[in-house]
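re: ur question from earlier - yeah i can do the single chain one, its not a big deal. heres the input i used so u can compare w yours
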Amino acid sequence: MKWKSLVLLAAVIFSFSKVQADPVEPFGFPPLITSLKLATAIDFCGEEVPLGVQEVREGLEKELLLSLWNRPQVILWLKRSTRYLPYIEEVLRNEGMPDDLKYVAIAESALRPHAHSKKGAVGFWQFIKYTGQKYGLVINNRIDERRNIFASTRAATRYFRDLHEIFGSWALAAAAYNMGEEGLMSEILEQGNNDYFHLYLPLETQRYLFRIIAIKLIIEDPAKYGFYIPDEHYYPPFHFDQVSIECADETPIRIVAKAAKTTFKAIKELNPEIRGHYLAEGNYNILIPKGDAEEFQARYKNLLKQWSSNQQERIYFVKEGDNLTAIAEQFGVPLASLIIWNRLNPRETIHPGDRLIIYPQKPVYVDIDNENNNNGAALASDQ
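and the output i got, formated as tokens:
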């Protein structure tokens, strides 16, 4: 019996070892070493990359290998490219800017609207707040256009145009985009050299352009690197209508969603720059699902009127010793709802005399009046 157990154990170990020894890459993927057979001429924005310089070739090979090793990430780049790159390409084309700049957005955010860095950079192009506002983006606690593909791309285009005018090359413009124009200018002056490929820069910036070029090589010829994605597996472009709305007061996004005959989530995903659950007072251009713009304004005004008359808000004035948890329990409402209704920061302290809005626990239903709506659509709960 002991002998049979040993034989069984050996068989299990052998099988496990065999599984572990199988190649990580699926059959059919080209060996990584063949991916380093670079073309004799590679450029970025029309500027030649000096592959004859050993350090340049090594840097590009490193970034290409690191990108290819992370195959799931590359697949996501490719699948997202059909959703976002057409809009970026259109802006660059209309502004007379090099098409290669679109790869900067992939390097910066992997085409994720909510990408966020430790340094406070946000969005597709990873603008920090100061630079984003300098180039016309609205950035506050209610709207953050760094997350908007259209607004942020226009801002990035203007920024790159200025950087190119300052430094005279797209490679240096990309370096300045990464490390800041003042930092790059100081290095150029100190080192007496204005060639990106011969400047000693922060390590992240030394790698930056090579990473962008590696992305360009893969995106332009994915099959060469073993990526065969059927057309139907790419993510579809956005299809939307744009509507203008006026908010005389703070307006719940759910009202906009109902007027567009869609969901809160759909509105947030089409308009990732909107923060929170409410639109502040003002005028907005909002994207809604394609085909839902007809009669939108009539539905929106009707819903807003009904919501305003039915909200039955209750005003509570904070007393000495109160805290948000105790107030929520007192009125039988979720703490999270209390925070949302009053746009509170849970880390900040409330004070005696502060005014809080507390809605009834019972959900409020808002329907479209069939007589006032040509298509007679009844909308769902206001919950």
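Strands lie at 43-44, 47-48, 240-247, 251-252, 278-279, 282-289, 314-317, 355-358. not sure if urs matches, ping me
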